[in-house]
Amino acid sequence: MAALSVDLLFDAAVRIQLLERSITIAFADNTIRMKFPTTRRLAEFLDVPHYYVLPYFAMMEEEELVTRAERVGILTTAKGSRKMIELMKEKYRKETGEILGKEVFDDLLRRC
User: What letter does residue 67 receive in the DSSP assignment?
Assistant: First the structure.
């Protein structure tokens, strides 16, 4: 079992989105928010017990990287979106571009 970290959870979140070929993005109040996989989905993907993931979500909320929204799920904050988009750019540019399209992805890169 790999040691968990905030960076590992963000990387897993991006990989899950790419595998599912689904990236949900919301634009509100000049802020980009991205839907984060559920804690259970991340735990399953990383093959760790669910309760191992929960403390890292508390840390991510304290660091203002994600927020939980009633009936919506977990969303990135502006800071979390920048982190996620930077990861997509650095490690998964081709795959992300195939899902979002070049124009949308380039626009996200400019905005963050």
Answer: E
- Contact by Cβ (8 Å): 18, 96: yes
Q: What is the DSSP string of 17-47?
A: HHHHT---EEEETTEEEEEEPPHHHHHHHHT
Taking alpha carbons only, the member of 79, 55, 82 closest to residue 65 is 79
Q: For the segment 12-62, what is each residue's pLDDT rounded down to a tens digit?
A: 999 999 999 999 999 888 889 999 999 999 999 999 999 999 999 999 999
Contacts 24+ apart (CB under 8 A), 42-47: 42/9, 42/12, 42/13, 42/16, 45/12, 45/15, 45/16, 46/2, 46/4, 46/8, 46/12, 47/1
- Going by C-alpha positions, the residue among 30, 35, 29 that lies closest to residue 69 is 35
- Are 33 and 25 a contacting pair, CB within 8 Å? yes
Structure tokens at 22: 């689904």
DSSP secondary structure code for residue 49 in this structure:
-
